[in-house]
UniProtKB/TrEMBL annotation:
Record's protein name: G-protein coupled receptors family 1 profile domain-containing protein
Transmembrane segments: 6-24, 36-58, 78-96, 116-135, 155-180, 210-236, 256-277
Superkingdom of the organism of origin: Eukaryota
Gene Ontology annotations for the cellular component aspect, listed alphabetically: membrane
Keyword NAD: no
PROSITE patterns: G_PROTEIN_RECEP_F1_2
Localization per Swiss-Prot or TrEMBL: Membrane
Keywords, ordered alphabetically: Membrane, Transmembrane, Transmembrane helix
GO molecular function: G protein-coupled receptor activity
Species assigned in the record: Didymodactylos carnosus
InterPro entries: GPCR-Ligand_Int, GPCR_Rhodpsn, GPCR_Rhodpsn_7TM
Domain G-protein coupled receptors family 1 profile: residue ranges: 16-274
Pfam families: 7tm_1 (PF00001)
Keyword flag Transmembrane: yes
Length: 344
């Protein structure tokens, strides 16, 4: 099950996050605050997939390092949890950024600036290396198992339920609702007028498309992530309860789906969610692919330029000049014919 389920997620998620990094690093998006958060989220999502899935695939036919390496037992979950929470925090900040962008208060709109994003990105990294420091402190190996001893198991389950299961989706949901209300107020306050400056229209359309992308990503996050803290909390509560073999098998399967499969869907699916929900993002991906193809396959570029030169249609001014030139040539021919007759 690990090989069939996690290997495709690792491959597709790795490709998707790399494409996200390339798209959000383009000049058009590089200086947008929300794109900075999504770029940072794509980088840490790539790390999360590496920290979580590669060790699981490694232990399919080998002994799990959790059973004999105290360093791996303490630091494995620590780095995985920190990277996952960094990605979730960047998604929350992106939702707040779009919410403040639509605010009627100018001071609140100041949050949606590139300089603010560049300060918050490293701050999130520092915060999430400090907050989960309790994981390497208390995790230990007992009976050849890496586990959370004693009452710390219940404390960690409550912490996971609040930090991963409740706070991010609640904050994302509030920001999404406020964004929707702000957009409705803007539409009611300002009559839609066709703008002359097309660049401003594209910027507004891009912001709107990013909001749609974030709303879809929030839904995927809630579906894929909420099961894990609930499973951890349930396991801590029923840790000392005697269970039958069937109950243990069902719980083991549910634990794998919640903590070993679904938890990675959010980090692996962001590119595909953005691609299928945003026309602007699809156009950006197509431009990226075209630029990469023309850069690394110059022969294709030459053939395309030749094809374009062949298929170029004359403009209106050029067409008018051609008509005048034809009239002048016809007039000259008539004059020449008349002169020949006179000479005869």
């Amino acid at each position: 099950m690990t090989r069939c389920g996690l290997v495709p997620i690792l491959i597709l998620g790795g490709i998707g996050n790399i494409l996200n990094i390339l798209v959000f690093n383009r000049k058009v998006l590089r200086f947008t605050s929300c794109s900075v958060y999504l770029l940072a989220a794509s980088v840490v999502n790539l790390l999360s997939l590496s920290f979580g899935i590669i060790p699981s695939i490694y232990t399919i036919n080998r002994i799990n390092p959790d059973t004999y390496s105290m360093i791996y037992c303490k630091l494995g979950l620590y780095f995985l949890h920190a990277s996952l929470m960094m990605g979730r925090s960047y998604l929350v900040l992106a939702c707040i950024d779009r919410c403040t962008l639509c605010s009627p208060v100018s001071k609140i709109r100041d949050f949606s600036q590139i300089k603010v994003a560049r300060r918050l990105v490293p701050a999130v990294i520092i915060i999430w290396f400090i907050i989960p420091a309790h994981i390497p402190t208390f995790n230990t190996i007992q009976n050849r198992q890496c586990l959370r001893p004693g009452s710390y198991d219940l404390i960690y389950s409550i912490y996971s339920l609040i930090v991963a299961g409740l706070l991010p989706p609640v904050m994302m949901g509030i920001a999404t609702i406020l964004t929707y209300k702000n957009l409705r107020q803007i539409r009611q306050r300002i009559n839609p007028v066709r703008m002359i400056d097309s660049s401003r229209v594209r910027i507004r359309q891009r912001d709107y498309q990013i909001m749609i992308m974030l709303m879809a990503q929030v839904i995927v996050y809630v579906i894929s992530t909420l099961a894990y803290p609930v499973d951890v909390f349930y396991g801590a509560l029923t840790r000392h309860v005697v269970k039958s073999a069937e109950e243990q098998a069902v719980e083991k399967f549910c634990s794998f789906m919640a903590g070993g499969f679904l938890i990675y869907l959010d980090t692996a699916s962001s590119f595909y969610v953005y691609y299928f929900t945003s026309t602007t993002f699809r156009h950006d991906v197509q431009r990226l692919m075209m630029n990469c193809g023309l850069k690394y396959f110059p022969k294709i570029n030459v053939l395309r330029m030749r094809r374009n030169t062949i298929n170029i249609q004359p403009t209106a001014m050029q067409h008018e000049r051609i008509i005048i030139a034809n009239k002048m040539s016809n007039h000259n021919e008539k004059l020449n014919n008349h002169q020949d007759k006179v000479n005869e």
